[in-house]
Sequence to fold (789 residues):
Amino acid sequence: KRLPCAIFGAVRSAVSVPTAIISGIRGYPQFSALSTSDKLDDKIQYPYFGRTDVAEGGQAISVLNLYIKWGVKRVAVVHVDDDFGNSFITGFRRVAELYAPDMTIKSFELPYNPSPEQIEETVQLLKKTQFRYINARISSSANEPLLKKAYEEGIAGNGLYNWILDSGKVTIHNAVALRGSPRHQYFNGIIDTGINRGSAEGGTAGFKALEKGLKSLLDDSRDLEYVKSFLPPPFQESFGAAEGFLEGPMSGSSHAAPIYDAVIAAGLAACNVTSTKGLPATESELSGQDLFATFAQMGFDGVTGRVDFDPITGSRSPSSAIYHLLNYVEDEERSNKTHVVFKEEVPAFMIDGEWRENAPITFNDGTSEVISDLFPVDVNTNYLSPGMRAGGLVMCVLVLLQALGFSAWTLKLARMSGPASRVVKASQPLFLYIICAGAFIMGSSIIPLSVDSGTCGESGARCDAACASFPWLLCLGFTAIFSALFTKTHRINIIMAAANSFKRVQVTPKDVAKPMLAMMGANILVLGLWAGLDPLRYKTQVVQLDPFERELETYGFCTSEKPLPYLLTLAFINVGSLAYAVYEAYRARHMSTEFAESEYIFKAMIGILLVCFVGIPVIIIARDTPQAYFYVFSSLIFLVASLVLDLIFIPKIFAAKKRLSKKESETSTIRLSKASLNLSSTGQQSTESSGVKIINQPKAAAELQEENKNLHIQQEQLRNEIEELKEKLRERDPPCEEARTLPSNARSEESQGVHEGVVTMSEIDQFKDEDCELGKKTEAATASFHSLK
Fold:
């Protein structure tokens, strides 16, 4: 009986590994067409093992290149826990480190014949990765149970995940499923990669010839019987018994093509050995060492394309193989309304390290679009909501309308003549215009405050411009308002300080403008240095990342490299001016001016100070929350501007209406000879347009009260004397009334005859005149006192 010169097989690496050890010890070469474990390249343990398939580490490059082509950077791999599966994941990680170092690979082991519990556990692990590309290198019997469980867990068959299986392990070709069933869903669009087995779509002439030759076995039953004789007895009965045997097209995942190449390679190697050594063609003369060495040096055009071997390992060179991508889709010709039949398509090949598509690839979602390797995240950018932005802009518009409206009202009354115009002229229109302009500018700062990346889009320059303009509008508007209020109260205090010492003082517009210009200049200087040396830029800050370091939450804000020195300087200037303005208003709190202007200025400043006391800390706390930050800051600007405008202008509006409805008397105040003060606010002659008229102060009020008391006493004394005089006149003959009507000569004669105890008419008239004058003084004092109260 002839001895064998070589052993062929096996399909599984787990079988080839132990048999190759034994065959190597016995000196027999072992050639496999499908075992791909990298372990078999170890020539110390497996000295005579060769194969017409590429080692798993070499095949991994085809899968990696496919993921690189699709832009996938995260892959979950479930592999069988044997030499085949372990070799693949080892090779896949190795080539990924070389060609895709940023790729994340998570692998999970599964036994060759897994239990339902093991499959469920593996699916749960796959689901936790959140990866949308899953590569399965498992046994063919475990493919469908794994896909079925994955479908139940929502990671297969829903168009959201793409599965790639191992070439040669797929049993989907010609599979039938109920339309709409889970099997239909998870089988549709399955992808299978591996070495091209020589499918017709691959275009290899050898494959077509093999397919034709195999079908010719059906032409003569003797040929089929001859083939059966080479099979082990258990397989002879079943060989060729399947329905449709060799009738349909040979699948690209068929084992026939690589096995055929392995047999041909061994035969060609044997021929080369005998021809090289000149030996007779007897198998007994072939040594295993010579046969394997010749096999490893060979190269030929086989059924699966060009076949070249690594001269050291005896494995097929990866560069000589053509890799294919099998795509399993519905066969519309054989499917019907109730059932779906799947067919195998080959839309892409990898040749010379590059995948080339000759047809669109159909994924599980039914499209040819490559999905991302992770689910898109809903990034919370913290953009201002439309309602929030609209609310802030409404506050801005309200401030602008108030400023424009009060300016128009001031202009109208300033051009009028009459009692109503006195309300505006007494407060000096220039200061009122400055307050309105400051409120307008300050209210406008809400507009750039409402700008973020949601409104600017990709244009960072627009956001930077908004950031740069905001502090200018805010600070200059604030300074204009409070420098005007400070100047008004400071001016009144200067005048009243001079009045206390009964001195006349002249406060010129130039004196008034100095503090205003100083505060405005200081703000402009600091803002200019800030804009020139360290300009504000719009920056996006990442708040939260997901496990894959993708942004989950961000927010935008304006910042610069070192903003703190500029902010502190501006705060010192403006808060300092506000505090000093409050101090000046406090000094003038008891001064009663026309229309109680000092009182309202003081109230406005106290209110603003309280608003800032509460609002500024909230702004700092809400800095990282754009919605709250915008709302609080906008509200603070609105309250400050509105509070000043309303407290300054609304009382004046009511005063003007009151003056229009009632005619004013010729003199609006009673000047007292000693106690009343008539001081001009500028030291010039008092006119209607010269400013606020001071009608009293605390010292004057006390003096008037004391004088009024004395005048009441004097009046009572005079009344008593008049009564006594009247009584005496009644006792005279003729009566007092008749005496007053006597001719002048008679009165003159009577006056000459005045004797002791007799009162003349001239004395009575003098008493009455004194009484009348005393009454007028009393009424004037009383009126002044009530006016003070």
